[in-house]
Each structure stands twice: as structure tokens, then as C-alpha cells.
Write a structure and sequence with these properties.
heterotrimer, A mainly alpha (289), B mainly alpha (308), C alpha+beta (438), B: 308 residues, mainly alpha, MetI-like fold, 3% strand, flat, C: 438 residues, alpha+beta, D-Maltodextrin-Binding Protein, domain 2, 2 domains, 45% helix
């Protein structure tokens, strides 16, 4: 079932590309990129240039900044990056799995308590994380899990936002008749989910994964309260310790800015990798334009 | 929908419940229990004997609804609520309007630079919050901001962004800048799920691109819009990051500018988790009323509009 | 639907209550059997380079005593105190913590810190009285060992003072005159700014004036933030802000850094650790600044306050209190340790002996033009007025930030702000159940 978008020859008077939408999006892109440009430019400045030169004037010290950042406490920054990758990668994977299975169940089946379960799940986000941090810590302490990798990963696996998203995408992407057909073919519910529904939900699940990955990557409060060992810190927390060195020691501004810039790079890479999934129509193998 | 089969395959009735087991267990452990404990804390307070400096001089005692009474009669909390309503009135329409607009634009045919603009608009969401205060400091403070520099050179008046009315715009700008991208992606993903035949049929009927967007695309992504709106309401009522980011830069923001900042102050600075818990429960109740009220209204409207 | 949510919450609350409070509070961490065999301690600290200092111990004294210390670097700030208290509630606190002086009463009143007067009380003579008294919290017990201190002094741009013909103020009246004189000669420059964001500085200035914000009368606390001494300080600065003689923007922002760097602000009332901050904030002006004693209220006096300063404390959760206390004592009194602290962590030691000579023989690089920097600093430090902290310093500090921000912004009287700060602090003490004497 391929989709075509040109039901006929293109009239000669039409432009070869859509000008207004492109221009509007470019404007939006520039608006969004300006502060990002600041981080880029600021990370090229050495300590003595940061507060003394014009804000958007590039400096000369990028290589030095990266070297200093790597040298800081024998490369603990890269340890932090690895930690972030672990928390975000594994966490987002598990979270997407839970969201997929839960969203699918809520979207496809009609069962007693469906809306109630959904609403209670959603109500989980009503209490702000600020107030849940201490109780979650005390709970983990009871299980003797504080200051461990698990203490940061387990609480983020269930994301009500992810479940809601997955439910919407499942409802939109998985038609009821396909499910029925699968049942008539004699498939068990789990098999139907795995082989029929999951591929159809993939573009939506990619969005859920992206969301969870970035959310966990940039999460601050949970690791802050759970972790005492700075070797387990994610990048956000690690950079924060560089900013908060006490009232008597100046903050390491250039290292923080350079560290923040480098921390964005994996997220950009992730985005570039997964964005092809938004263009894929896996049932037919064709690429939606 | 007629039940043509009298015999359902084994496991269908129990399947949804089984599928929901992981979510339920995780919810109980990491949401229900902590929420329960927070509610429990909100009904307690500390009691100190004497100077409070000896061992065991501090006790946790039952306080009943004292924390709630105090929170509800706290004018600072009320003012904070009014402030964030004003803030939300700017942020939510602008952010979601832009997100919808950009998503629709991204879905246009013959668009150039789609990948670049999509990534660029998403990027702000990926910026770690730890640099936010520095970044916005450099962009907003008159002495170092390039925008003031440009306005100055052009001879135009430059409002003090960190005071009064413009302060709300400054705060809203941070939220819009940071949140539009992700909401855009959410709506865009929904757009990608719409089968192409619908557009073909509409085009054969003679609809223009704009009509297709307004009459077909927007209604079909309504569930995504409802979701983004729902979570934007919650995010507004729980706003914390933006004012906390700007606080060290200006005299215009107090440490309790938004209700959640007050919760944070009490929980993490004043070491009074009990008052903080009571305030958080109140905020949660208000959020529940507003956000779920909205959800109910939105869903009943879509039900009225039939099918799907 | 709503009832189900309420019912679920109630059930969860009961379950959580049972689960989390069931165990209650066990007895104190306790000393295990007398330390035999190697002991491993954890130390939560934010001072940079502390792990290198701990290395000295692990390879030297610690090796002999079989005590190994691992430093876990944390982020400083108010939330760290809460993090420590939360960890202590769950009996997961580390053996040693770095604690700012003003946080000590809060930590003690939350049962976090252990009394180490037996193990380390004998070094009292090595510290100035005002500093030691902050570590005992005015009681017979010892809760921490002073590590570093931050006596206040006056920093100014020597070259710009010459350029504008300004004299270095020795009293606060002269300071006000200097500010006004600068405004007349260069209206777009400021002598300095009043920052509503830096409560510690205001507290130090109040100390210099003789204020004692928290005192104990019998078994009750007395809050005297609104006393004549502090009111004098508040009106002084409020007056200058109102006149427009000084700026009213917060410190430690990019704009403030730039102001220092470009000479838009030409002086800074700050503590002995200012060279580090100036190196980061105003690198272009290195060597152009000079340090002088803090302006006085009475001509000829030598009194100053403190801004910042931290201590090393042992927690109740520690299973090896003696070992931890031994390390804390070494860290803050041993000459080699103190030299390493100065070199690696860049702090100004609280131990009087280490404040001159040795690691502090040369001036900081930023003040290469002032060879006797640390000798002068030691003289100034001798006149440090005692500090008087209470169990809710953070509440007072937040109240300062909010009330003085409004006052500074509107360039209005600072007296009402001070009264509001007093009221808020007193009310909070009462709310927490402390006995207060009005």
C-alpha cells in the first residue's frame, strides 16, 4: 500500500519547493538556535575571555577547554557521560517497553476499569517530583538501594507521559480489524502484540523513547537525592558540582559550559539516528515522503 | 460493534490486565507509596524540646490539618498561584500554537531543510538545565546581552527584561523556547500516522493545502493536542525551573515566586518537609481539578463528535 | 473515578506509613567493637582537591592507623544540608561531612552530628575563640573541627582610586563619602553594589557591628536580627542604595563579573578568599587591586565579620567515630595537611598557626602587587567578631533574599525589610516548636 503524493504532473508554474513553510520553519529554527549558539561560542572562550568579550564573539580556547575538562579530576567527566548513557539508555529502553505494553493494552482492549486505571496512572504526575524525592529516597533506603545505579534507574521506568503517548499512538496506528484478523489466524494476544502491533507502533514508540531518553539524561533531582558517590553521578549532577564549589571557591564556568555543550552531542546523534523511523512505513517498506 | 464470535480465544479477557502488570507494580512502588508517604508527612510536624540541640530533642508528631490550614491561609502561596496563572496564560497558547504550527509546516510537501529545522527546533529541549542560569544571564542582562547591544546601536529603547511586565515575557520565553520542540515532535508523530489515502481523497475533492491542514489534519491529531495541553497545564501549575533560573540574576523574583518554589524552599532549604508536603498536596489537588477537568471536557467533546 | 483515586491514595498512605515508619529510629549508629583491622571512611565534601589531601593521609598517617578515607565530592549549598539530613534519617549518612558553620546548629538539632569533644577537644587552643565557638554551638560538646574561615576585608582598584583621587576608607562614614565622590567624578561607575542574593555577606557585616542574631537564654532561643547593630548596618547600606551612590544588582552574575572586569565597579567588600573569585570574574584587572582592612564603625578599631567558612564534622551514623575524629583532627591541625589544604583546595585555614608563613608566605597570584597580603589578612582575622548561629539560619537567609530584594529594587528603606526578616525567623522558630524568648 504505497502512498503517492503527486496525483499528476506538476504544473510548470509551481515552485520547486514550498517557500513560505520553509521560511517560517527556518525562522523558528533560528529562534531556537540562538541560545544554543551562545553555548557553542561560550565554550570556545577561555576563562579570561568569558566575561570580558562580546557575548557572541568566538574565543580561542575550545581545545584548551576540552582538555581541561578531560583533565579535571582524571577524566571524571567522561565517567559522568558514561553514567548518563547508562541511565538514559537502559532507562529509556525499559520505559518504552513498559509504555508500549501499557499503552497498547489501554488503547486496544475494552475492559472494566480501563479509564480508572488510566486516570490513576496519569494522576501520578500530579505530585511534583520535588516532593516525591525524599519519600522515594527513604523507600530506597529501606531496600538498601540508595547510592546505587538501580536507585536512579528504577523510579524513572514508569512514565505516565510515555504511557499516555503510547496509548495515543497505538490507537492511531493499530486498527482494530488487524487485531481481529490476527486473532482469527489463531495468534495469542502476546504474539499479536509483538508481531503485528509493535511494528505499527514503532514511529510512535521512537518518540516515546526519545522523550524518555532526554528526560532521564537531563534529570537532576532524582540523582541528586539518591547518589552520594560522585563516580555514579550523571553529567547534570557532575556539572552542578563544578558550579557549586562553595562560597570560597570560584565556579568553573568554562568547564561547565564546555561540559554542557559536549553533553548535547549524544542527544543530537540520537535524534539523527532515530528520525528515519518517522519516515518509515514498516508494513509496506515504503518511505512516506 | 457486534460480537460475531461466541467463543473468544483464550486469554483475551485477561490480556489487558496482564499487560498492565509492569505499570501497576512500578506505579505502586514508585508513585503510590511515595505519594502516600508524602500525604502522611503532610499530617505531621516536628516538635522540639528545649534548645533542640541535644540528642533526641526533635520529634515528629501528629499535626492533623495544621499544615493545610497554614498553607491555605498563606498569602504568598496565593500570590504565587496568581502569578503563575498569568505566566501560564502566555506560555500555554504560545507554546502549543507554535508547536502545532511547526508540526503542520513540517508535514508539508516539497519542504526543504526539513531535517535541519526539525532538529533545530527540538534542540532546546536537550539543553541541560545546569547551564540555564548562565545562558539566560548572558542573553538577558543588559550589560552583556547582544540583543541590548543591537538595540542600543539601533537607537531603540530597550525594556528591562528582568522587571515587571517584561519579566513574565522573559520567563515565558524560556518555557516556550524549551518546550515547543518536544510538543512539536509529539504532534508531528501523530501526523505521520495519518494514512496518505485520506489526503489523496481530499485533494481529488479539490481541497487546498490549507483546507487539508485545518479540516483534516488538526482534527485527526486532536488526541495529541489534548495530551500536550493536559501536560502543559500541569507544567504551568508546577513551574519551577524558569523562575529559579532567573532568580540569581535579578531582584524581581522572590524565592517563592511560584507555589512549587515555595514547596522546594520548605523541603530543601528550610528543612520543613511537612509544610512542603501539605502545600504539594494542595497544588496536586488544584492541578487534578484543572487538568482532569480539562481532560474530561476534551474527551467528552471528541466523543460527541462521534466515531473513532 | 475520583473516589477510587482518593481510596487508592488513602490505602497507599497507610501502606507507606506502615512500611516507612515501622522501623522507627534505631539507637545511634554506635561504635562497633573497638576498631580492629582496616577502617574505611567516606567523606562528603565540596572543597576542590580534597581527595588529594585525603591521599596524603591514606599514604601516611592513615596507613599507620589503618584508616582509609574516600572523599565523595558533592555540590555545596543549602540543599546539601537537607541531603545530609535526609541521609541521616535513613541512617545512610557518610562518616564525615563538610559543613558550613551556619549549618551546624541545624545539623545538630536534627541529630546528624556526633559529639567529638573527647576525641578532638584538645586542639581548642589552635583556633581563634570566635571560630571555635561556632563549632561547639555554644554548648559543652564539640560538633565539628573548624576548617576554613572567611574574614571580611575591603578590596579596591588601586589604579582607579588614584585616577579619581579617592582615599581608601577606614571607617564606614568615609566609605559613604568615597562612594559619593566617585559618583560625582564618574556617574556611570559604582563603588560597589548591594547584593540581596548574598545573605552571608550581610550576616558578616552585622557581626562586625556587634550583632548576635541567635542567642540562648536558659532553655530558650532569642532572635535578635532586628537589633540596633544590624539596623545600623541595614540603614547604612539602604541609605547608599536609596541615594544611588552604589548599585543594587546581585553579585555573581555575568553582568557583575563584567562590571568588575571593565572597572564599572571599582571595589568589593569581600572575604579573604576573594582573589580566587576575582581571578575568574575579572582576569583583565589582575595586579591592579589592593586589599585593605574592612572599614570600621569606630575609627581605629580592628573588628571584622566572616563570610563563609566550613568545618569537618563526624556523623552519628558513623560506625567508626574515633577514627573519623582522628582524621578530622589531622586534617585541620596537622601542618602538612593544612599546607595541602591551602595548595589544593585554595582555602584560608582556620587554624591560627597556618595563617602566616608556610603555604601562605607568598601573596595570591592575583595580588602579586601586594606581597604582605596574607600577613595583613592574619592581622585582620585576629579581630573576627564571634558569630551566633541558630537552628533556622536558612529561613533567615531566604527571608533576607526576598525582603531585601524588594527593598533594593525599589531603592526604599531597608528597615522594614529587616523587621520582616526578624519576624519571619522568629515565627519559623516558634512553628518548629522551639522555645523562644521574645
Amino acid at each position: 500500500m504505497t502512498t503517492t503524493t503527486h496525483p499528476g504532473p506538476v504544473p510548470a508554474t509551481r515552485r520547486r519547493f514550498a517557500l513560505v513553510p520553509t521560511a517560517a520553519l527556518l525562522l523558528g529554527a533560528v529562534y531556537c538556535l540562538l541560545p544554543v549558539a551562545w553555548i557553542l561560542v561560550a565554550s570556545t572562550k577561555s576563562g579570561s575571555e568569558l566575561f570580558s568579550t562580546f557575548t557572541f564573539l568566538p574565543g580561542s580556547g575550545f581545545a584548551d577547554n576540552v582538555a581541561d575538562l578531560s583533565a579535571y579530576r582524571d577524566g571524571v567527566y567522561w565517567r559522568w557521560m558514561a553514567n548518563s548513557a547508562l541511565y538514559a539508555g537502559v532507562g529509556a529502553l525499559l520505559s518504552t517497553a513498559v509504555s508500549a505494553v501499557s499503552g497498547y493494552a489501554l488503547a486496544v482492549y475494552r475492559f472494566r476499569g480501563r479509564e480508572s486505571i488510566f486516570n490513576v496512572l496519569l494522576a501520578g504526575v500530579l505530585m511534583p517530583p520535588v516532593i516525591l524525592a525524599v519519600p522515594q529516597y527513604l523507600l530506597m533506603a529501606k531496600a538498601d538501594l540508595t547510592d546505587s545505579y538501580l536507585s536512579v534507574m528504577l523510579p524513572v521506568i514508569l512514565s505516565p507521559y510515555g504511557v499516555y503517548l503510547a496509548r495515543i499512538y497505538a490507537a492511531a496506528a493499530v486498527p482494530g480489524d488487524v487485531i481481529e484478523a490476527g486473532r482469527m489466524d489463531g495468534g495469542g494476544e502476546w504474539r499479536i502484540f509483538r508481531t503485528i502491533a509493535l511494528p505499527m507502533m514503532l514511529p510512535g514508540l521512537v518518540t516515546v523513547f526519545l522523550f524518555q531518553f532526554v528526560a532521564i539524561w537531563n534529570n537532576f533531582l532524582l540523582p541528586y537525592i539518591m547518589l552520594g558517590d560522585d563516580e555514579k553521578f550523571p553529567v547534570t549532577l557532575g556539572l552542578f558540582t563544578l558550579l557549586q564549589q562553595g562560597s570560597t571557591t570560584p565556579a568553573l564556568y568554562t568547564l561547565v559550559i564546555t561540559g554542557a555543550l559536549l553533553a548535547i552531542v549524544p542527544l543530537i546523534a540520537l535524534f539523527l539516528v532515530i528520525q528515519r523511523f518517522w519516515s518509515l512505513d514498516l508494513l509496506s517498506g515504503a518511505v512516506k515522503s | 460493534m457486534t460480537r460475531a464470535r461466541r467463543r473468544r480465544p483464550y486469554g483475551v479477557k485477561s490480556a489487558p490486565y496482564v499487560f498492565l502488570i509492569p505499570a501497576t507494580v512500578l506505579f505502586l512502588l514508585f508513585f503510590a507509596l511515595p505519594i502516600g508517604y508524602a500525604v502522611h508527612l503532610s499530617l505531621r510536624r516536628t516538635e522540639v524540646s528545649g534548645l533542640g540541640l541535644g540528642r533526641g530533642a526533635r520529634k515528629e508528631v501528629w499535626a492533623g490539618l495544621a499544615n493545610y490550614r497554614e498553607a491555605l491561609s498563606d498569602s504568598e502561596l496565593l500570590h504565587g498561584a496568581l502569578r503563575i496563572l498569568g505566566y501560564g496564560a502566555i506560555v500555554v497558547p504560545v507554546m502549543l500554537g507554535l508547536a502545532l504550527l511547526f508540526a503542520l509546516l513540517l508535514d508539508t510537501e516539497r519542504l526543504r531543510l526539513r531535517g535541519f529545522t526539525r532538529l533545530a527546533i527540538f534542540l532546546p529541549y536537550a539543553i541541560p538545565g545546569v547551564v540555564a542560569a548562565l545562558m539566560w544571564g548572558f542573553l538577558y542582562l543588559p550589560d552583556v546581552s547582544p540583543f541590548y547591544f543591537v538595540l542600543d546601536k539601533a537607537g531603540l529603547p530597550a525594556p528591562d527584561l528582568l522587571d515587571g511586565g517584561p519579566l513574565y515575557a522573559a520567563l515565558a520565553n524560556i518555557a516556550v523556547w524549551g518546550g515547543t520542540g518536544f510538543n512539536m515532535i509529539v504532534i508531528y508523530t501523530s501526523l505521520r500516522a495519518i494514512p496518505g489515502e485520506i489526503f489523496e481523497a481530499a485533494r481529488l475533492d479539490g481541497c487546498s493545502q490549507l483546507q487539508i491542514a485545518l479540516r483534516i489534519k488538526i482534527p485527526m491529531v486532536a488526541p495529541s493536542l489534548v495530551l500536550t495541553f493536559f501536560f502543559s497545564i500541569i507544567a504551568t501549575l508546577q513551574v519551577f525551573n524558569e523562575p529559579t533560573t532567573l532568580k540569581p540574576l535579578t531582584n524581581s523574583l522572590s524565592t517563592t515566586w511560584s507555589p512549587l518554589m515555595k514547596v522546594y524552599q520548605d523541603a530543601f532549604v528550610n528543612n520543613d518537609i511537612y509544610a512542603a508536603a501539605a502545600q504539594a498536596v494542595i497544588i496536586a489537588a488544584v492541578t487534578l481539578a484543572l487538568s482532569f477537568g480539562f481532560l474530561r471536557a476534551a474527551n467528552s467533546r471528541t466523543k460527541q463528535e462521534g466515531s473513532r | 473515578m475520583k473516589y477510587r483515586i482518593v481510596a487508592a491514595c488513602a490505602a497507599a498512605s497507610l501502606a507507606a506509613t506502615a512500611l516507612l515508619t515501622g522501623c522507627g529510629s534505631s539507637d545511634d549508629g554506635g561504635e562497633g567493637p573497638a576498631a580492629s583491622g582496616p577502617v574505611s571512611l567516606t567523606y562528603w565534601a565540596w572543597a576542590p582537591g580534597l581527595d588529594k589531601v585525603a591521599d596524603l593521609w591514606n599514604k601516611g598517617e592513615g596507613k599507620k592507623a589503618g584508616i582509609k578515607v574516600t572523599v565523595k565530592k558533592q555540590a555545596s549549598g543549602d540543599d546539601l544540608v537537607t541531603k545530609i539530613i535526609t541521609a541521616a534519617k535513613a541512617h545512610k549518612a557518610p562518616d564525615l561531612v563538610q559543613a558550613e558553620y551556619q549549618a551546624l546548629p541545624t545539623l545538630v538539632s536534627n541529630d546528624v552530628l556526633a559529639d567529638i569533644s573527647e576525641e578532638a577537644g584538645d586542639v581548642e587552643g589552635q583556633f581563634a575563640e570566635g571560630v571555635w565557638q561556632q563549632a561547639t554551638v555554644g554548648s559543652a560538646a564539640l560538633y565539628a573541627l573548624p576548617q576554613d574561615s572567611g574574614p571580611l576585608m575591603f578590596y579596591y582598584r588601586k589604579d582607579l582610586f588614584e585616577k579619581y583621587g579617592l582615599s581608601v576608607p577606614t571607617t564606614w562614614d568615609e566609605f559613604a563619602e568615597t562612594a559619593r565622590a566617585l559618583k560625582r567624578k564618574a556617574p556611570d561607575k559604582d563603588l560597589t553594589t548591594f547584593s540581596s542574593n548574598d545573605s552571608g555577606l550581610f550576616a558578616g557585616l552585622a557581626q562586625q557591628a556587634g550583632a548576635k542574631w541567635w542567642t540562648t537564654v536558659d532553655d530558650k532561643w532569642k532572635v535578635a536580627i532586628d537589633d540596633p547593630a544590624t539596623r545600623k548596618v541595614a540603614s547604612f547600606w539602604g541609605g547608599l542604595v536609596k541615594e544611588g551612590a552604589i548599585d543594587n544588582q546581585p553579585m555573581y552574575t555575568p553582568a557583575w563579573n563584567k562590571a568588575l572586569n571593565t572597572g564599572k565597579q571599582i571595589a568589593w567588600v569581600s572575604a579573604v578568599w576573594a582573589p580566587g573569585t576575582l581571578t575568574t570574574a575579572a582576569p583583565d584587572t589582575a595586579g591592579k587591586w589592593a586589599m585593605a582592612p574592612l572599614p570600621q564603625w569606630t575609627a581605629g578599631a580592628n573588628v571584622t565579620g566572616s563570610w563563609g567558612g566550613s568545618s569537618t564534622a563526624v556523623t552519628n551514623d558513623s560506625q567508626h567515630k574515633e577514627a573519623a575524629a582522628a582524621f578530622a583532627k589531622w586534617l585541620n591541625t596537622d601542618p602538612a595537611a593544612l599546607a595541602a589544604l591551602v595548595k589544593e583546595s585554595g582555602i584560608y585555614p582556620a587554624a591560627t598557626a597556618a595563617q602566616t608563613g608556610g603555604a601562605l608566605a607568598k601573596p595570591p597570584a592575583y595580588f602579586a602587587n601586594q606581597p604582605d597580603f596574607y600577613t595583613e589578612a592574619a592581622k585582620i582575622a585576629k579581630g573576627t567578631a564571634p558569630a551566633a548561629w541558630g537552628p533556622n539560619v536558612n529561613v533567615a537567609y531566604s527571608s533576607f533574599k526576598d525582603n531585601f530584594a524588594k527593598a533594593a529594587k525599589n531603592r526604599s528603606d531597608f528597615a522594614p525589610a529587616l523587621t520582616a526578616m526578624q519576624d519571619a525567623t522568629l515565627a519559623d522558630l516558634k512553628k518548629q516548636g522551639f522555645g523562644v524568648s521574645e
